[in-house]
Amino acid sequence: MDLIITIIIALLCVIGCSAFAFSAGSKIKTKVIKKDIDITSTIKDVLPVSEFSSFVYHYTAVISHHDAVNFLNFTAEKKGIFTIDGCVKFGFIGKEITIDYRYNNIILNMPKIIILSHDIYPETFNIYDEKTTIFNKYNFNDINDIQLNHKATQIQKIENDFGLFIQAEQSAEHIIYSLLSNLPGVKDKSIIFKWEDFRQALESPQDTEITV
What is the C-alpha separation between 132 and 138, in angstroms, rounded? Predict the structure, then answer.
């Protein structure tokens, strides 16, 4: 009889210890998950959700123009050198950022850098060298066409200037790092930026790691 009682007590102890261990493990797991959720939520609260401009590129362009028209029995030429100022804003769509938190690393999956806007300033349009004839002078329509054609060709050049896009990425990382570095729960963690590449020829995202 004493042996049976001893066995029963031993079984109850084993069951009790197993239940305690399972309960403790569940609590630890729950705390870890909750901590991950809290950090992610905290970061989301300070990140931009709409269009975010991280880099502004100002330029002054030199435009060469040449045109000729046939007037009676001769050709009337006009040509000129002009300058105009412009501004291009680079950035990304904030709501497309996703966040992962693994092994003490905060991973920000960043959307690709895009051109948000391109503006030219007609008031800065200047003529530096103009050669015309009385029969073929520059008029308002000519100036307007020159500016519009410049805007179209300039944006093509900018789209192929990878250096500007890289500057926009680096500037965005600096801004976001400044926003996150003082947040509760973020200190002493590494922030990894994984960019969707703006260069379609490359397949893998670009990774940058910053330790807060």
Answer: 8
